[in-house]
Amino acid sequence: RDAVARISLPAEVRQTYLDDAAEGRRHWQSDLPAPVVNGIDAAVAAGCLGMMMATTQDMRLHVDTPMDTPERMNLDRLTPQIAMCGALIDEVVRRPMPLSRSPLSRRFCRWGGIAAMPAPGEGQLDLGIPDAVFYAKSYLGTKSFGVRGIGVRDAIVVMTDGEGRFDIDDILPEKVRWAPLRSEVYCFDALGRVNMAMTRLGKWDTPATGHARMQDRINLRGEMFECAQIGLFGLHDMRYLEDLDKVVPVEVARGSEPRAWNFAFDEGAFSVFLPTDVDRWQLVVARGTAARRMLALNAGPDEPEGRGFPLDWRQTEPVALTSARDFALLNTDRMARLEGTGVIDPYLRERHDESCKELAAAEEALTAGDGAAAARETARALAKQARVYQLTRSAADDTIHAVLLMLVCLVPFSYFLERLLIAATGIYRQIGGSTLIFVIMVALIALFHPAFRVSLTPVTILLAFVILFLSILVIAIVLGRFHIELRYLRQGVSSAEGDAAGSSTSDFRRFAVLNRAMLLGIANMRRRKMRTALTLTTLVLLAFLMMSFTGSGMKLHPLHYEMTRLDGGDDARSAIMIQRMSCNPMPAWTLDYLSTAYRERAEVLGHWWITYNSLTTQAPRTFRLDGPGGGYALVLAASCIDPREAVLLGMDRLAGDDGMTAFAASPDAILISSSVAERIGARQGDSVEMLGSRFTVAGIMDDRGMLSLTGFNGRVYAPLDYSRYIQWDPDPTLLQSKLDLIDSADSAADLTGSPQTDQYHGISPDQFVIIRADRASDFDAGLRSIVIVPRDPRNTMALADDVAVSFRQPVYANADGRVVLCAMAELTTLQGFSSVIVPLLIGAAIIFNTMLSSVYERQREIGTMMAVGLAPLHVGALFVAEAAAYGTIGVVGGFVLGQGLGTVAARFDLIPGINLNFSSAAAVWTQMAMMAVVLLSSLWPAWKATRIAAPGSESTWKLPVPQGDEMAVLLPFTVHGRDAAPLLVYLREWLASHTESSLGRFTCGAIQPFADAGTGGRGLVAQIWLAPFDLGIMQTVELEIRPGSDPSIHKVRISLRREAGPHSSWIRGNRRFLTELRKRFLLWRSLTPAQAARYHRQIAVGA
User: Fold this and answer.
1) Partners of 1041 in the β-ladder
2) Please, is 1055 exposed, middle or buried when counting C-beta atoms within 10 Å of its C-beta (0-12, 13-18, 19+)?
């Protein structure tokens, strides 16, 4: 830049070519639209300063072609260039310029290595391969940069010497090359066929030589193997409209990948290299890490998994047809195996039968020589069979998930059933009984459940369950112990002291209460054997009905997401557009394929963009549009469309009939906006120049009118503004990854619910022009969308749904005055539910009657529960817990027995019309429905139990009204006389654990015991500070246990006297304090005999 400043270039030159690029207003390559090799790359990489001169705004259409002859040179541009270069050279020679050391560092790298193969019996690669060809080519992802610039090949080719070694000097770094190099090594026979290939290329370090040229050397070593080359063509994914880029060979004899293999690919053409000792091979074709898109198995009716292909196989038919046939045979076998085990999916069968018919039609068309029909039917069959393949695997996996869910549910079922049938008293007998029931139920499930026949190794199902169960158990134990330790730390006691205290230092354990409530319910069920048996029989029959006559199924359903409505409800605009969600380019072959597939029903048009911007472009990259009078405009893109598409979009209203006629008549026509026309000084019919080619202005359109144009995707018609995408994610790499995920969307929800749907931003009309699609190939344009114009506009929506079935790309339908995004969704629906509503209601009534009768039969038990201190809501919750235990036994047992009876009935055709559903969705639905019936049927009886426990209107315990600063509370607890003194010791220990804590609900001061000889009562007096402590709420608490009318039964009375703090806060704080105190009384009754004996011993020692 300093040197150019000394040469004193004109201001226009500085502004156009230097200042804009340096200050970030334009990319420095904006004036070089064609990929021109930068002549100073080598100088810069070598650490030297340099300057290049190149012709700007020239696509170099004839370079590197036979048409590059002297008579086609543009002498009008060449003559002033020669004059300018001569003047510059003369100025440099005449004017002395100070030379300084270049600030650039040398960035060349050097490769050296060896192509070798292991010696017999040795693992060291020491047998060099002479005359091997080392080949390196630039790749960016899956895109090849083999031709880096006009007339220059970027590939590196060198042969190894007699020892298999090679050396390459002065390789440009990746930043200069734009993309990393991918290296390959081959050996060729006399006929040019590959007979040895490289399986991998590694690096190894060598001792430093001290030579300056050797310090940046990269040492490579290629492991070679003798191979056979297999060529495959047409590996395109018609469903996603993209090229495939990954193959995985399988050696049939071993059932795994060969010991050595490699492949090379470019635009759907693959060369696969396999060892010569491979007898037969198969291929799995994919794109990246996505699901399998194609298979090459050479399957047959007797060998659905394929016989494989020999090494001398040559492709004689489209690979897509071979893959569709292999998919069909493999799916037929797998579906037959699933249906043989009882897993029947009508949707899978329907889709499979449809694709088989299309496959037969494709083979007939190919035999008849109708290539268009063969390609169309093959693509349809392959798309459906690939989906059936995925769904078939999902059905098998789902069946295994269902049995795992059932095994998990068997754990509480076995425990409750042991309590109901055996009721062992010892812990070891309880574990043994539960385990025995679990083993019996697992054996029954293994007899009829298809998961154990679908799986190749059924033992892994049990192993997976054991791992899952033990993991959950260990996590629960560790977390439980962790919470206990945290509680001990908060209370300031050690683990030993806390363990010794047991439940006295733990919170109120709702899970333990729930477990005991369930055990009480099971004990009640055990006492009433006949009613329990009848109720469980009802649940078994209900589960059998739910399994046999209901289930979940899939169906293909079209989804229509309205993008926008067209002004005036234009019914004449009937078209369909296919475009990626990210607007990334599609392969050019997709246009030819769609034209062939739909040529009888529609006209297929391509929509191209000429743009050199991307997500990684640091500054806008523009190109010039030169007017007739010397004016110019810088534009970001050019849209290449067909005149038919222009008319459908409504451009004829903006450009006029004459303008649209001129646009359709000449391939060199161009449409520009009024602002661009004003900037370059052009009118209709003038000649303008862009990208080195002459165009004729066919029409000038108003800027506001162009902003009102609605594209076929329902958005403003304009190429994408990449600079606005940065707002979505500032990191271009992460943003590109997100867009790639959007493009690979595999569900209708992904296509219609993508956030990118509302994030599209087009450039303004003064930043792009419109030319004919005929010229797209001249300017390296990218195919951004495909427009399908139905021959009968009335069939637009039907054709759009048909296209959406075949392709997993967004399909926009323009019909009936609106733009609709079409997609096909595979919806999961519940079937047969209406037929079991009445049995469900009858079952619910039976369970309701059972639970309500249990409430009235257990009124004395409810009174006992109130006597021990349970609140009315807790009493009602006990009956809900009992119903949950009822439901667990009945639902799981009914599910297992129902599946067993259903399997027997279906196998011997005892009940026609039964169709069992073994999927996990059906299992979850059945169990949730049955549990809902049981629990809902128990809500009213639980409420009645609550009313019996508290006949008044209040179902919860409330504080009494204080008398001034004093409050007397008579707790709803009774204590046996022998437990009164130990209970006070227990409560004193609990209060003492709060003397040094300021994090709980209260803090306790000095604690004094007292005894009243007159009444026989005894108790504790303590100073209590209530939370929040910043309010200074202090009170004196007197807890007294005294005999009642029966001397052996004692009552509990608490007196509270406020010493300091706000009166209202004192009342609220006591609500929390007395709740904690009530929990202590409940936990006292949950102590084990050994824990209670500890407090009795303290009384004895004190006495």
Assistant:
1) 1018, 1052
2) middle
Round to whole Å and give the CA distance between 18 and 11.
Answer: 10
Q: Residue 251: name the closest of 209, 280, 294 by CA.
A: 280
CA distance 791 to 532: 70
pLDDT for the residue numbered 100: 64
Closest C-alpha to 692, from 34, 74, 58: 58
DSSP 19: I
CA gap 785, 639 in Å, rounded? 11
Q: Is 618 exposed, middle or buried (0-12, 13-18, 19+ CB in 10 A)?
A: exposed
Cα gap 585→579, rounded to integer Å = 9
For 689, phi and psi rounded to 5 degrees?
A: -125, 135
Sign of CA dihedral 166, 171, 175, 181: negative
* Mean pLDDT of successive 10-residue stretches along the chain, which has 1103 residues: 53 52 63 73 73 79 83 82 83 70 70 81 70 79 52 81 86 62 87 88 46 56 90 88 89 92 87 94 84 89 93 91 94 88 81 93 92 86 90 85 84 88 87 91 85 79 85 86 75 54 47 68 81 81 74 78 74 86 87 88 94 76 89 93 93 92 95 95 94 93 91 88 64 59 51 49 91 90 94 92 86 90 80 76 82 80 68 74 77 75 70 61 71 83 79 61 90 82 90 74 89 86 90 92 86 92 90 86 78 81 51
Domains belonging to the chain, first-starting first, are 2-94 (no CATH), 109-343 (no CATH), 509-557+831-954 (no CATH), 604-782 (no CATH), 966-1102 (3.30.530)
Residue pair 506/1083 in contact (Cβ under 8 Å)? The answer is yes
**Cβ contact 720:583 at 8 Å:** yes
**Could you tell me the two tokens for 655?**
């450009």
DSSP state of 965: T
What integer pLDDT is reported at residue 714 of this predicted model? 85
- Separation between Cα atoms, residue 160 and residue 171, nearest integer Å: 17
First to last CA, the chain: 103
Contact 636, 611 (CB under 8 A): yes
Indicate the pTM of the whole model.
Answer: 0.75
Number of C-beta neighbours around residue 353 at 10 A: 12
Q: Under 8 Å CB-to-CB from 279, ≥6 apart: which residues?
A: 251, 252, 253, 308, 310, 311
Structure tokens at 545: 């009905």
Is the Cα dihedral 14, 19, 25, 30 positive or negative?
Answer: positive
User: In 3D, which of 379, 568, 517, 555 has the Cα closest to residue 879?
Assistant: 517
CA distance 621 to 634: 9
3-state SS assignment for residue 296: strand
Give the Cα separation of 450 and 440 in Å (integer).
Answer: 17
For residue 851 the two structure tokens come to 């639970």
Contacts for 327 with CB less than 8 Å, ≥ 6 apart: 295, 382, 385, 386, 388, 389
Q: What pLDDT was estimated at residue 505? A: 43
- The alpha carbon dihedral of 880, 885, 890, 895 has a sign of positive
Q: Check whether the bond before 1089 is cis (ω within 30° of 0).
A: no
Q: For residue 469, what are its two tokens? A: 């169960």
CA 99/CA 337 separation, integer angstroms: 82
Ordered DSSP codes for 602-662: EEEEEEEEEE---TT-SS---EEEE-TTS-EEEESEEEEE-HHHHHHHTHHHHHHHHHHHH
Dihedral (Cα; 418, 423, 429, 433), 10-degree rounding: -20
What would the 3-class secondary structure string for 71-126 be?
HHCCHHHHHHHHHHHHHHHHHHHHCCCCCCCCCCCCCCEEEEEEEEEECCCCCCEE
Helices 837-857 and 920-949: crossing angle, nearest 10°?
30
